[in-house]
Amino acid sequence: MNPLYHLGLWLYRLVARLISPFHTKAALFSKGHSALIYKMKQQITHECPIVWFHCASLGEFEQGRPIMEGYRLAQPGHKIVVTFFSPSGYEVVKGNPVADWIYYLPLDTCRNVRRFLDTVQPVKAIFIKYEFWYNFLRALKKRGIPTYIVSAAFRPSQPFFRWYGAVFRRMLRMFTWLFAQDGASESLLLQIGVSNVIVAGDTRFDRVWKQSHTPCSLPVVEAFCCEVSGGAAWVCIAGSTWPRDEALLLHLLEAHRQVKLILVPHEVDEDHIESIMKLFAPFSPVRYSQLSGAKKVLHGAEIVPDGAEKVLKDAGWIPSGVGVLVVDTIGLLSSLYRYGSMAYLGGGFDHGIHNTLEAAVYGVPVIFGPKYERFNEAVDLVRLGGAYSIRSQQELLAQIGRWLSEPERRTEAGRVCAAYVARHGGATEQVLDAILERTDDGCQKSRIDVG
Question: Is 273 inside a domain boundary?
Fold first, then answer.
């Protein structure tokens, strides 16, 4: 297993380098790993203890963010290092003040692990949801560094529970504690003899709740919604879409002309955005970046939320008749759902759906494709009637048609979503309590207000 594992890492790095001239993410990955440990040695200081958080990508960062913020409140004398595996996480989050230093994760070779841990010297290591790196975990265990995984969810199909999964099961025992999302995950772990588990829930509930109560104004979006709200139009927020989703949404607009669309594609490279603009050409699409970046001031005055819709409209930023706003930038989706009458989550026909909770917290009913069963909250919301899974264009049109003809159905579905999020909070405080109880630096445990 070990030689094969290291061969796989070497091949991954080689392929990333070979395709980097033709692939944006591969180029960012290769650039980010260049002289990575050297950069860390030059930047990281050790006047304070350091806690290390690792996230695969942007979604895991948002999931772990309540823990980071709560830990900083409880231990203000500590510093935070955050690492990412994916460029889509690192490129968005780099410079975020929640962490003192943000880097790519070095590839999980024995040499990289040794150099990384010698450089960072973390007093704790906290992994978010799905990250299992054998050499890192083994070295952390050997050095006696408390190591946790937060909001982990386990399914019978994972390697941990297969006949060939001995090495994977070994990794689970390297954690000090595994904070599982639910009792089903705990049961699976207990069946294979893994007892270092605490059922704490999912920190995403705390994160989306806090986001929904944070003031936010997006003048361009408000102008678009103001433009369509004069009639009977409803705004659909389509999040993290792929080409198959976009084809379905085109048919939705053709069938239900009163629906207007804010489209946030999963990939925002220029080729994909141009293909979207051509696909939705009959509905006069506009690009968010071209509007939001056109002017930062108007007649020498900064645009402010009060009256922003009128200012933007009068300035001609949202032409009359626009039916689609294409958001061609990263990091806005979670704030956009507050403007929606309904939400469509992409990826349900191919890759698995995007974060359901980001829409549900606003009382927005949700629709997605058939591949959602790996996500507990999506399964729950379908069962409760707050979300709907569709398998075809016909099912999508029928469900939207029901909401349009009977608005009370949409309202009730949204109420179910909001209530579901409201009653599942609290994971952050439980995780922090457990971690802080096990500190060995003599600090007093603090209660954290995650709201």
Answer: yes
